[in-house]
Amino acid sequence: MSLLTKPVLRRLGVATALVVAASTAALAPATGREPASTERAAAVIGWPPAPPAQLVIDTAGVTVGREDYVPGTVTLDGVTRVTEVRGRGNSTWGWDKKPLKLKLEEDAALVGSRDYDEWVLLAGYADRSSLRTAAAFAVAAQTRLKWTPRFRFVEMVLNGQSQGLYMLTEQVEEGKGRVNLPDDGYLLEFNKRYLRDDEPGFRTRWGSAIAFKNPDEVTKKQRREVRRAVTRFEKVLYGPDFADPETGYAAYVNVRKLIDWYLVEELFSNQDSNFQSSVNVSWVPGKRFVFGPVWDFDLSAGTRWRGSSQPDTWHTRVGRHWVARMLEDPAFSARVKSRWARLKPIARQVVSEIPAAAATLAPVADADWAQWHASGDLDWTHRGSTRQAEVDFLGDWLTKRIQWLSNNEVRLGGIRQRTPERERTVWVPVRLQSPANGTVDVSWTVQAGTATAGEDFVAATGQATFAAGQVERYVPVQILDDRVTEGRETVLVSLTGASRDIVVGSPSSTTVVIDANVR
């Protein structure tokens, strides 16, 4: 079935008008966290990296475990400090190269200029390039996210034995200069493993698993307060009017920061970023949820748990979670794509600096490779046979990813449409993000939701053909009247592919609701 002619605009409704506004409005220059000099922002957090210093931990031979701190000292930059040390991480703790956490007796600025007592040593064992987390932080630091952890690379020596290259970084925690919150604020994490991790938390009826990172000790009143706030939001988010610009999701979440958080995570195709874990959100009663900071990119950019990822597939947006639902709003999806156009030069700049960063780390990184990676452990993390090959793979994968994310995008232009059960055609809009300079074919299907094909509607497949310069076409959904008394039924419209390197974005499917037929 071919695409029919354009119907009158009054059929489109408010949702399509919002998409038009989002698609055509120029994105205003970012304010606040996005600095005039993005180079300066990256340098503040530690990118490009400096040559690794030696960090020495001495626990007098006592074995460092994951559960309990052991006393010791840490020496860095010629200064020895009293500290406690323990292991950290979940699956990463089971690997040969162990991540650690330091708790200093007195606050000190191990990275940057602010004094804190808690610091993290990331082993990055699954990241054979050693640069994924650092590069992701470098991009995040140049967005509108309020804070990104500062870091530096070190050669970590434990009780006289070199453990190789580590990333010394700030702890994600509440505090001035980190996640700065008032006394009644909360630092939360989406973490489906919170019970296994022995963290206080809860699950919502929509499947969100939320753990408390701050405060450490959570009262029943605090748990109830956060749960009620999340429930109020999710009732709106998963309700029929979720995209209303005044009363929908935008009234409950800082959309600007959420978009930037999402784009950093999607750029790297970060393993757990589709709301499995390490998705940090803060909330202050009476205010909106704020996403960030980013964290933990060892399994990203081509590597995931016991597998690999491709640069031309979606990851973070896949599944049932807050961002996936918001992307069902065409106006939000168009806004994400427009924002990416602003962040793309930043991402390209960081990727261009990866070879130089690898060279700076080379003396320690080469020894780390010989110590931990030459034996072939964790075969599923292998992207190259040498450290240089791993670095080259990372740069190449991210370059392809940036290009794919930058390709023109097609999406459905309506959120949900309703129709009485009578003989008629419902027109579902299809929209390109930007006009193409040639013909574009977009394939679509009309199939059953709860409605019955041949009785309530006509099942069909076809193509929406955009001529050069066109940004909107329509999928026809032919509704039938079977003269039977029955309740509400649904028909599913989906986009299945596109020509000319056009990416199928979100929403790629929508529902046509056939109202109850009462005789």
Describe it for me?
This protein is globular. The protein has 3 domains: 9-26 and 409-514, CalX-beta domain (Immunoglobulin-like, Sandwich), CATH 2.60.40; 38-170, no CATH class; 186-347, no CATH class. A 7-stranded mixed beta barrel has the order 1-2-3-4-5-7-6. The chain has 9 helices and 23 strands. The protein has helices at residues 13-24, 38-45, 132-140, 220-237, 255-268, 322-326, 330-352, 354-373, 387-406; strands at 53-58, 70-76, 79-87, 100-108, 116-122, 151-158, 161-170, 186-190, 201-203, 209-214, 279-283, 290-291, 303-304, 307-308, 409-412, 416-419, 424-432, 440-448, 460-466, 472-479, 489-498, 503-504, 509-514. The protein is of the alpha+beta class.
- Radius of gyration from the alpha-carbon trace, in angstroms: 25 Å
Unreliable runs: 1-36
Mean pLDDT: 91
Distance between the termini: 32 Å
Gross morphology: globular
Give the amount of beta strand, in percent.
25-35%
**Can you summarize the main beta sheet?**
7 strands, mixed, barrel
Strand order of the largest sheet: 1-2-3-4-5-7-6
Helical amount among residues, as a percent range? 10-25%
Number of helices: 9
Structural classification: alpha+beta
Count up the domains.
Answer: 3
Number of strands: 23
